[in-house]
């Protein structure tokens, strides 16, 4: 049975929605367009949750150094 | 100076399919089943719940760069020994 590696799972999530939890209390949910070795990510149609405030962003480059958890197919809940 | 072997000192293979609790920089804590890992300590975990809220996250990728520690076989809260 093949095990899937973290970067492999992230690759599979390209073009679908991902939910990202940052190191601090912020969350992002968007369509994953791509990523690099440092987990910097390009997301589209993004909802940012910051201290309870929601912001909509069309396209962002999210800095990988602050990314803590990535949930493929997830939604802000 | 002897070259140290390029092998990780952390042997995660034995914890695959077991439940672990991960603490991250910034204070986040999650509990879940370890499915896989890579050389940078990025993890794939399943049935993940965030602690202490018990919020269900499901199948998750954890960034190794932000992991502070992991606990296997659970943790028990004790009285603060430093007071």
From TrEMBL, chain A:
<dbReference type="GO" id="GO:0003723">
    <property type="term" value="F:RNA binding"/>
</dbReference>
<keyword id="KW-0698">rRNA processing</keyword>
<dbReference type="InterPro" id="IPR001163">
    <property type="entry name" value="Sm_dom_euk/arc"/>
</dbReference>
<keyword id="KW-0507">mRNA processing</keyword>
<dbReference type="GO" id="GO:0005688">
    <property type="term" value="C:U6 snRNP"/>
</dbReference>
<dbReference type="GO" id="GO:0008033">
    <property type="term" value="P:tRNA processing"/>
</dbReference>
<keyword id="KW-0819">tRNA processing</keyword>
<dbReference type="GO" id="GO:0005681">
    <property type="term" value="C:spliceosomal complex"/>
</dbReference>
<dbReference type="InterPro" id="IPR033871">
    <property type="entry name" value="LSm5"/>
</dbReference>
<dbReference type="Pfam" id="PF01423">
    <property type="entry name" value="LSM"/>
</dbReference>
<dbReference type="GO" id="GO:1990726">
    <property type="term" value="C:Lsm1-7-Pat1 complex"/>
</dbReference>
<keyword id="KW-0687">Ribonucleoprotein</keyword>
<dbReference type="GO" id="GO:0000398">
    <property type="term" value="P:mRNA splicing, via spliceosome"/>
</dbReference>
<feature type="domain" description="Sm">
    <location>
        <begin position="5"/>
        <end position="76"/>
    </location>
</feature>
<comment type="function">
    <text>Plays a role in U6 snRNP assembly and function. Binds to the 3' end of U6 snRNA.</text>
</comment>
<comment type="subunit">
    <text>LSm subunits form a heteromer with a doughnut shape.</text>
</comment>
<dbReference type="GO" id="GO:0006364">
    <property type="term" value="P:rRNA processing"/>
</dbReference>
<keyword id="KW-0694">RNA-binding</keyword>
<comment type="similarity">
    <text>Belongs to the snRNP Sm proteins family.</text>
</comment>
<protein>
    <recommendedName>
        <fullName>U6 snRNA-associated Sm-like protein LSm5</fullName>
    </recommendedName>
</protein>
<dbReference type="InterPro" id="IPR047575">
    <property type="entry name" value="Sm"/>
</dbReference>
<dbReference type="GO" id="GO:0046540">
    <property type="term" value="C:U4/U6 x U5 tri-snRNP complex"/>
</dbReference>
Automatic annotation (TrEMBL), chain B:
<dbReference type="GO" id="GO:0071013">
    <property type="term" value="C:catalytic step 2 spliceosome"/>
</dbReference>
<dbReference type="GO" id="GO:1990726">
    <property type="term" value="C:Lsm1-7-Pat1 complex"/>
</dbReference>
<dbReference type="InterPro" id="IPR001163">
    <property type="entry name" value="Sm_dom_euk/arc"/>
</dbReference>
<keyword id="KW-0687">Ribonucleoprotein</keyword>
<dbReference type="InterPro" id="IPR044641">
    <property type="entry name" value="Lsm7/SmG-like"/>
</dbReference>
<dbReference type="Pfam" id="PF01423">
    <property type="entry name" value="LSM"/>
</dbReference>
<dbReference type="GO" id="GO:0003723">
    <property type="term" value="F:RNA binding"/>
</dbReference>
<feature type="domain" description="Sm">
    <location>
        <begin position="7"/>
        <end position="76"/>
    </location>
</feature>
<dbReference type="GO" id="GO:0071004">
    <property type="term" value="C:U2-type prespliceosome"/>
</dbReference>
<protein>
    <recommendedName>
        <fullName>Sm domain-containing protein</fullName>
    </recommendedName>
</protein>
<dbReference type="GO" id="GO:0005689">
    <property type="term" value="C:U12-type spliceosomal complex"/>
</dbReference>
<dbReference type="GO" id="GO:0005688">
    <property type="term" value="C:U6 snRNP"/>
</dbReference>
<dbReference type="InterPro" id="IPR047575">
    <property type="entry name" value="Sm"/>
</dbReference>
<dbReference type="GO" id="GO:0097526">
    <property type="term" value="C:spliceosomal tri-snRNP complex"/>
</dbReference>
